[in-house]
Amino acid sequence: MAQTVSLNDTHSGTIQDRKADHLRICLEDDVQCHRTTTGLERYRFIHCGLPELSYDQIDIGTQFLGKTLQAPLLISSMTGGTEQARIINQRLAVTAQKFGLAMGVGSQRVAVERPELANTFNVRTYAPDAVLLANLGAVQLNYSYGLEHCQRVVDWLEADALILHLNPLQECVQTRGDTDFSGLMAKIETLCAQLQVPVIAKEVGNGISGSLAQKLINVGIRAIDTAGAGGTSWARVESERAEDVKQRRLGQTFADWGIPTADCIVGVRAIAPEIPLIASGGLRNGLDVAKTLALGANIAGMALPFLKAADHSEDALDTLTDILIAEVKTALFCSGQRNLQDLRHNPVLQRID
């Protein structure tokens, strides 16, 4: 039988502090994968010296879950639950609205357990037209959460979809983590059938394989976010804040665990050619984004670059986003592709390993 806990137990009382720790560690410490890469370095665009296009003709608009995006970018789920996180989320939402991007918020569990913190996530006022994604950990379905909690976070955000994040490794490393993942697939199926918005399955940096994607799609998941290995290692993050030697060692041992992002994209696309696919995990520039789109992703998610810019200022976010869009458009132009549909369906990449 799945373990159940009170929403007011001592474990939940540490959530706000954990959110603050996560922000501080990601901004200040080196918590990237050191040995595992995204795998994107194994691919190179085939340069087209005569694209027969005007740069101004390049169109990087796209559709995601029936919504229009001006650029194929998702500001990936990051934070919430603290005053610093509230400011960051508001800045990110303003940018999503201004540039026509999608945005996910961090896990809203802290707001479920402390409703007075819901305002640190609720950014619809700042992004009235943007695609916004609510977020809860899938494992919480085994710890007393159900449809009511999921619908609540969707309603607070006025979200277009709900992300269920999958994080077994992080929970293993996290002190007193929630590690009962048994029977979750059936609960996800029930939730997908009942929730009023689409449900997206997302890893947190260790990747989703093709075989797991197929199982998730079979139970009603409407989109997949790869969140592959090669970027921020949440095992390393949790190791930095571990309370004992065992947990610190676990985080260090498994810091580079996971499926590289490029392999996730290829693996999911092999079994599900049409599923809406978000490529994320270690993307650091628009060229990375363009490679993931050429490999078959519909949109690409980035977290750390947006987080660092948002922590600085709104102007820094605008500059970053403008650069990312220019990088994506330049990749299309210099490979002779007019739009994202052409990019996905034409052989523009060569593997170099």
Provide a brief overview of the structure.
The protein is an alpha/beta fold and 353 residues long. The protein is built from 14 helices and twelve strands.
In one word, what is the shape? Answer: globular
Number of domains: 1
Q: What is the CATH level 1 assignment?
A: Alpha Beta
Cα end-to-end separation: 47 Å
Supply the CATH architecture.
Answer: Alpha-Beta Barrel
Uncertain spans: 1-13
How does this model look, in words?
With 353 residues, this protein is of the alpha/beta class. It has one domain: TIM Barrel. It has 14 helices and twelve strands. The chain has helices spanning 15-28, 83-99, 109-113, 147-157, 168-173, 184-194, 210-218, 234-240, 245-253, 261-271, 286-295, 304-312, 314-333, 340-345; strands spanning 43-45, 62-64, 67-69, 73-75, 102-104, 131-137, 161-166, 199-203, 223-225, 277-280, 299-302, 349-351. Helix 2 crosses helix 13 (314-333), helix 7 (210-218) packs across helix 10 (261-271) and helix 8 runs antiparallel to helix 9. The termini are far apart. The model is unreliable at 1-13 (pLDDT under 50). Its cofactor is FMN; Mg(2+); NADPH. It is found in: Cytoplasm. Its main location: cytoplasm. Its EC number is 5.3.3.2.
